[in-house]
Amino acid sequence: xxxxxxxxxxxxxxxxxxxxxxxxxxxxxxxxxxxxxxxxxxxxxxxxxxxxxxxxxxxxxxxxxxxxxxxxxxxxxxxxxxxxxxxxxxxxxxxxxxxxxxxxxxxxxxxxxxxxxxxxxxxxxxxxxxxxxxxxxxxxxxxxxxxxxxxxxxxxxxxxxxxxxxxxxxxxxxxxxxxxxxxxxxxxxxxxxxxxxxxxxxxxxxxxxxxxxxxxxxxxxxxxxxxxxxxxxxxxxxxxxxxxxxxxxxxxxxxxxxxxxxxxxxxxxxxxxxxxxxxxxxxxxxxxxxxxxxxxxxxxxxxxxxxxxxxxxxxxxxxxxxxxxxxxxxxxxxxxxxxxxxxxxxxxxxxxxxxxxxxxxxxxxxxxxxxxxxxxxxxxxxxxxxxxxxxxxxxxxxxxxxxxxxxxxxxxxxxxxxxxxxxxxxxxxxxxxxxxx
Length: 437
Known about the structure:
By secondary structure, the protein is mainly α. It has helices at 2-5, 11-42, 47-53, 56-74, 83-106, 109-136, 143-167, 176-196, 199-212, 219-222, 226-231, 236-270, 275-303, 305-325, 332-357, 364-392, 398-414.
């Protein structure tokens, strides 16, 4: 295995590849934060309808992300398989991102909704190709390190927007400057990617390594036998654990996504506080979530995934319950949302590995699909439900709603009996960041 031991990740190349994901994450952070405020405060759309609109991107994603991932597998051009989708998708998304504030400022709801729909379609066309570019140009044994870099770049993208929102003042819900800057940065990131990463050249190099060096993959492991086909079907007790695990993940995302999507509305419309304050708290949660990955990896290696997740869900319930009683969002709230970030980071690190622990090598892709179908389905329904509750009861329902969802997630996790093997600690600390977006 000497060939694997001395193989190193090309960090410069991987950071450049990560620019596409940085731009994507920056856009989605802006989308979640700004769009509901425009719909509610600029166009006077009912809060439940506005939150239902916020679920459109996840509905599109359910079928467009896998579709364009497959299409990009089959394309072959002079600039690569993924690059045409990344360049084209970014260009269309940037154009209509610039149109959004124009439509909002003029009060043209029809133009705004058309532009929003086209932006969401454009984003969905190149997210999968952008994510697939990293494994294309990275050798198999070091893809975990590459994935860590990509996730860090995504977090940086979200943080850039939140920092921008704290600095740039908006009056009368006019977000033109922010939209223009985000669109410009998206284009700049992808242009740098295109000019510095030769996709065809690097992919050919990696294909020669991945499939030409028998030291990297044991050929015996690639032979599919009748016995291995039979083993793809989960035993009843493992299937039961899988279903409860997916239910727990669904309910966790139900509660957490409701808070992250609706928090700007909660702070601005319920407490009538500055938007920069909401952005600051979310940025604290984002940064602490990333900082949590490494220590959580050590904790999990000692007590196991299930106990770690149960502890995080308990802490999450406590923090969201405290948040309900906060009437003065002062400096103390930074500690509160720092704790929320720890909860999010802890659960993110452990849930997907728990799902994959129940899979076989030949079914990892299928089980990853189960995971993402679960999380995206949850993100479709929870904005609609919480928006309806806002309309019927009021914004004060947000954190009790989240507490109930986390409590149900906790109960479902109690019935999970598999997928809890203690992972071997990775040699490089950066690999502890190896989680999916």
